[in-house]
Design a protein that fits this description.
By secondary structure, the chain is α+β, with helices and mostly antiparallel strands. It has helices spanning about 1-20, 25-30, 100-110, 145-150, 165-175, 185-190, 195-205, 220-235, 240, 245, 250-265, 280-290, 320-360, 365-385, 390-410, 415-445; strands at about 35, 40-45, 50-60, 65-70, 75-80, 85, 115-120, 130-135, 155. Strand 3 and strand 4 form a beta hairpin.
């Protein structure tokens, strides 16, 4: 609390000074670049080496092209990607235009096109050949910070380039509370449901994505979908895929490891051709989730819609976004456990039915033996046709009643009849539990 009060006092002092002293004078006096962020009355001071740069073309809100005007790189052209923040996408391949993306792009075009700016590097560039940098305007202001403060961008800290991390986090929080730019009420309406967005952001973090990295409208790749499904349905793998050692692997090594788990789990067939960078068509997402839930073991006629998992396949080439993928995988995760219970109870029912079938051959009453064998066959058939469950349970009740009457009447196969009745009773109990588990899987309330 004390520290907060001191910070507020410093801001007031800075605001008081800057009301009367031009920033250029302060910069020249201190030998540094001093900038002013009006939205939060915040002073920025840069002491790092800067290189003058002429902007010739703006790609979108956070990326532009141009050439150096001075220093060892004078005359050299490059692409600058501003760091510490991220604007909504407008031109990224396989990614829809995101909310407030056009506004962010237009703002940067207006502010930077054909202007001279100053480039300051942090610790590294990116693998795409771009120069990662902080951009200072002629008046000394840090343009990256301005974008976050005005709501044109989200804060996004990626190691090792985190020099202004705390400032950007503070500016984003202020922009959110003031509902500026992409945090405006229109943004809330665009996202349709703030509770749902909070849910998606929370789940995205469980899959290894920070709030700044999570873009609900971004198209996901096959590699990302497989990773989501594996982490969600096989939680013992989560520690592995989110471990530092995993991220130390190359992208190709990461994909190969994910692919091996996917094949082992039955999500991908061994001879299936997978390109981890391809966007995911809805039809393929349907296949992956169905395999994860082993729906083919229930019935060819059973599909995801039977469990409230809706995938629109009217256009099978429509690709899956990150937000929709998270919802889809979360739904699959929630129905996975009750479905596993269903399979487990059905396996117990089949095992008991085999006991019934074996014991029936010892009976002298051939008609009863045939009746028991038919019942055992119906139990096995119901594994792949859940609609038979009610009929099979009804048959079990009739059998139990008949067997009890024979036992009470002192039937000569009394010992075997008692064993058969016990097996029928156990089969019936397993069928009831299986049916209940299936109903649970079909009635779970999945998301907010």
């Amino acid at each position: 609390m004390k520290k907060h009060k001191q910070l507020q006092q410093k801001r007031k002092q800075a605001r008081s000074i800057l009301q009367y002293v031009p920033l250029r004078f302060v910069s020249e006096s201190l030998g540094t670049d001093v900038g002013w962020i009006k939205e939060t009355s915040t002073v920025t001071i840069n002491t790092a080496l800067k290189k003058k740069f002429k902007v010739t073309h703006v790609r979108d809100g956070d990326t532009f092209e141009g050439k150096y005007l001075e220093g060892p790189n004078a005359g050299e052209s490059t692409v600058i990607r501003m760091i510490g923040m991220d604007t909504p996408e407008t031109v990224k391949e396989n990614t829809p235009v995101q909310f407030y993306g056009p506004e962010s792009s237009d703002h940067t075009k207006k502010m930077l096109t054909d202007k001279s700016v100053y480039i300051v590097n942090d610790k590294s560039d990116d693998p795409y050949g771009r120069t990662l940098a902080y951009v200072f305007l002629e008046d000394g202001s840090l343009y990256n910070a301005d974008l976050v403060a005005e709501g044109y961008a989200r804060a996004l800290a990626i190691e090792p380039n985190t020099q202004w991390k705390d400032l950007f986090s503070y500016l984003e929080a202020d922009a959110k509370s003031s509902r500026r730019g992409l945090w405006s009420s229109d943004a809330t309406t665009s996202n349709t449901n703030s509770e749902l967005m909070s849910f998606l952001e929370k789940k995205a973090s469980e899959y290894g994505y920070s709030n700044g990295e999570f873009q609900p409208d971004q198209l996901i790749t096959e590699e990302m979908l497989l990773k989501f499904v594996i982490i969600a349905i096989y939680p013992e793998t989560k520690a592995l895929f989110l471990a530092k050692s995993f991220y130390d692997l190359s992208q190709d090594e990461q994909f190969q490891q994910i692919l091996q788990y996917a094949i082992k789990a039955g999500l991908v067939a061994k001879d299936e051709i997978i390109d981890g960078n391809d966007p995911v068509p809805l039809s393929y997402a349907h296949t992956i989730i169905s395999r994860a839930l082993h729906l083919n073991e229930i019935s060819k006629d059973v599909n995801l819609s039977d469990f409230g998992v809706s995938i629109n396949l009217t256009n099978a080439k429509t690709n899956l976004t990150m937000g929709d993928a998270i919802l889809l995988v979360e739904k699959a995760k929630n129905i996975h456990d009750p479905l596993q219970e269903y399979f487990s109870h059905m396996a117990e029912a089949v095992k008991s039915s085999e006991t019934i079938e074996n014991l029936s051959s010892t009976l002298s009453d051939l008609a009863l033996a045939d009746k028991l064998k038919t019942f055992a066959g119906n139990v096995k058939s119901s594994v792949s046709d859940p609609e038979l469950l009610s009929k099979v349970k009804s048959g079990a009740s009739d059998l139990l009643s008949s067997l009890q009457s024979l036992i009470n009447g002192g039937w000569k196969d009394l010992i075997n009849l008692t064993k058969i009745k016990k097996a029928v009773d156990e089969t019936n109990d397993s069928l009831k539990k299986a049916e209940d588990a299936l109903k649970d899987a079909q009635s779970i309330n999945y998301i907010p």
